[in-house]
Amino acid sequence: MKLQRKNRLRATALGALAVSGALVLTACGSDNNTGTETEGGKTSAAASDVKCDGAEGQLRASGSSAQKNAMDLWVKNYMAACSGVEINYNSSSSGEGIVAFNQGTVGFAGSDSALKPEEVADSKKICKTGQGINLPMVGGPIAIGFHLEGVDSLTLDAPTLAKIFDSKIKKWNDPAIAKLNDGVKLPDKAIQAFHRSEDSGTTQNLGKYLNAAAPSDWKYEAEKKWPAPGGQAASGSSGVASQVKAVDGSIGYFELSYAASQDITTVDINTGGAAPVKATSENASKAIAAAKVKGTGKDLALDLDYTTKAEGAYPIVLVTYEVVCDAGNKAETLGTVKSFLTYTASDEGQKVLTEAGYAPIPAEINAKVRETISSLS
Q1: How far apart are CA 87 and CA 325, in angstroms?
Q2: 8 Å CB contact between 54 and 335
Q3: How far apart, in whole angstroms, are the C-alpha atoms of residue 120 and residue 146?
Q4: How far apart are CA 61 and CA 257, in angstroms?
Q5: What local confidence, expressed as pLDDT, does residue 3 receive?
Q6: Out of 43-52, 183-192, 267-276, which region has the weakest mean confidence (pLDDT)?
Q7: How far, CA to CA in Å, does 163 sit from each of 78, 214, 215, 231, 261?
Q8: In 3D, which of 294, 240, 283 has the Cα closest to residue 262?
Q9: Do residues 353 and 139 make contact, with C-beta atoms less than 8 angstroms apart?
Q10: What is the mean pLDDT of residues 333-337?
């Protein structure tokens, strides 16, 4: 059974599995994350898009754990190309990242949801001549992972997911689940649903999906703090994934790269389209491609369509933003912020996202991101 699960996951996230073993900042210098290696393995194809001009010293950043695996790849490639520059990204949560940014302790923050008006107002104290803006940098599916011995594939829809995470559906053989999985032998076993313990943009994006696609069954506001009673909490996407991996009868939500690296089977989503949709980078890209910029000025916050029924479009997606000052950045870190984010938004920087189980930002939107980064001051 375990082997079947592994084979199935490899078929949908092969690229993520290929790099999962090298997704730590402390990986040895001979690791190669992009598939291109020179003698000694110290450079990669991605390094060709790194421009180190103006970069120096240490740059601290923090926030979204959703983008951790992408950030680890970016940091490793960047630091290999820019000698003497250190990027220190603390993978905590979107909420903690915004707090750190508005306290002035980091050069940029990662957040899976755009800044709220009050957060923008707070940012003006740090961005002396400007304000915090949202730069979409990482896209991808929020995978619904499950661990159910004897079951290697599972289809759910938004109303059923809402009832599971709201503790309204408590057994795996509930008629609502059975109806979506004809021919699958579902056990009479309690569902153990895991959610994030800390404020999380991943939680908020899941809430936005459930609000939009199952409004009658999910009555909670889409906030970063988990709103529903019951369930069990774990810290970070990695913590939720680890619990799902360990506990039979469990279900949880996290980015696809965590499912791939821990060999967790993911749920197919019935959107009402022709066929259930798998959580893959390609399918997430189909949903993100329809996003529209809703921010004004240099702010590039996006409006996502969580109710899409487009063929092959996976609807539970998130976009992680890098939050920066449009003006008034600290002089000692501005050069490094611009250099590093120029790389992450480059063709090569975005290309490695697919290899790590994420989805690149659509080209038209990414062109605006690059233009905005070059104008930071």
Answers
A1: 18
A2: yes
A3: 37
A4: 21
A5: 41
A6: 43-52
A7: 44, 10, 11, 12, 28
A8: 240
A9: yes
A10: 97
Residues 6+ apart with CB under 8 A from 65: 91, 92, 93, 200, 202, 236, 237, 238
Region of 297 please: left (phi>0), alpha (psi -120 to 50) or beta: left
pLDDT, tens digit (0-9, with 9 covering 90-100), for 223-264: 999 999 999 999 999 999 999 999 999 999 999 989 999 999
Q: Which two structure tokens, joined as six digits, stand for 115? A: 């800044």
Stated pTM of the model:
0.77
Specify the pLDDT at position 10: 40
Q: 89 or 12: which carries more pLDDT confidence?
A: 89
CB within 8 Å of 298: residues ≥ 6 apart: 133, 326, 372, 375
Taking the C-alpha atoms of residue 213 and residue 206, their distance in angstroms, rounded to an integer, is 10
Please check the confidence at residue 193 and state whether its pLDDT lies above 90: yes
- Between CA 170 and CA 186 the distance in angstroms is 13
Indicate whether 43 pLDDT > 50. no
Q: Is 233 helix (H, G, I), strand (E, B) or coil?
A: strand
Which tokens is 196 given? 């994030």
Render 334-366 in DSSP notation, one character per residue: HHHHHHHHHHHTSHHHHHHHHHTT-BPPPHHHH
DSSP track, 157-222: EHHHHHHHHTTS--BTT-HHHHHHSTT----S-B-EEEEESS--HHHHHHHHHHHHH-TTT--S--
- 103-148 pLDDT, tens digit each: 999 999 999 989 999 999 999 999 999 999 999 999 999 999 999 9
Question: What pLDDT shows up at residue 47?
Answer: 56
Query: Helix, strand, or coil here: 76?
Result: helix
Give the chain's domains with CATH numbers: 2-138+326-374 (3.40.190.10), 141-286 (3.40.190.10)
**Both structure tokens of 356:** 């790590």
Q: pLDDT at residue 101 above 70?
A: yes
| SS3 track for 91-154 | ECCHHHHHHHHHCCCCCEEEECCCCCHHHHHHHCCCCCCCCEEEEEEEEEEEEEEEECCCCCCC
Q: Residue 103 forms beta bridges with which residues?
A: none
